[in-house]
UniProtKB/TrEMBL annotation:
Residues 51-92 are annotated as: Disordered. This is GcrA cell cycle regulator. It comes from the Bacteria. It holds the Pfam family GcrA. Residues 52-76 have a biased composition (Low complexity). InterPro entries: GcrA. It comes from Bosea spartocytisi.
Length: 183
DNA sequence: CCCTGATTCGC
DNA sequence: GCGAATCAGG
């Protein structure tokens, strides 16, 4: 039996198709299965593919053909200098405090349904969905166009700040008499 | 933080 | 030939 990670003609063909289609290496790797994105990239270059179609689904790096300047991998020097440690540095910016939201129940507006304006940051597919991304469903789950919000979510928060507010709406007593609260 | 592709080199 | 490790950039 063929190994899962073997580059069969069909796999290569699919690789070419997806690569030309504009999918990123990681997405192609996920689609193929049992292969890492490095494997895909390596194969792509080995096949002579590159540059594919610009303006793709995830054109993170629009530029083509790297100027090739980095020695890549330094066998002599493991990593004692700042060569591989500089990336770890990160400046701590004034983070936005989590909205305390004390008591806000002035919902005198009935709001027929949901007129909530969703700031479509970047919808993502199930594949692109990461653990730290907002899982707010968008569209019908039965359609292939189903996506998730994908915005940044705080730690322990399945949704972004905006959707979290919607998901965690108070009891359900919106316009009802909420003066009576069951103990 | 995450992501992307490019490159090198040991296997 | 293959791909992990690494690099470099967004």
């Amino acid at each position: 039996m063929n190994e899962a990670g073997a580059w069969t003609d069909e796999r290569v063909e699919l690789l070419k198709k997806l690569w030309s289609d504009g999918l990123s290496a990681s997405q192609i790797a996920a689609e193929l299965g049992n292969v890492t994105r490095n494997a895909v990239i390596g194969k792509v270059h080995r096949l002579g593919l590159s540059g594919r179609a610009k303006s793709a689904a995830a054109p993170a790096t629009p530029r083509n053909a790297a100027p090739r300047k980095a020695p890549a991998r330094a066998p002599s020097h493991p990593m004692n200098n700042a060569a591989g440690a500089t990336r770890g540095t990160h400046a701590l910016a004034p983070h936005f405090a989590t909205q305390p939201e004390a008591d806000i129940e002035a919902e005198q507006a009935p709001r027929p349904s949901e007129d909530v304006v969703i700031p479509f940051s970047e919808r993502v597919t199930i594949m692109e969905l990461r653990e730290y991304m907002c899982r707010w469903p968008m569209g019908d789950p039965t359609t292939p166009e189903f996506r998730f919000c994908g915005a940044r979510s705080q730690t322990g928060m399945p949704y972004c700040s905006h959707h979290a507010r919607i998901a965690y709406q108070p009891a359900a007593d919106r316009r009802r008499d909420r003066s009576k609260v069951r103990a």
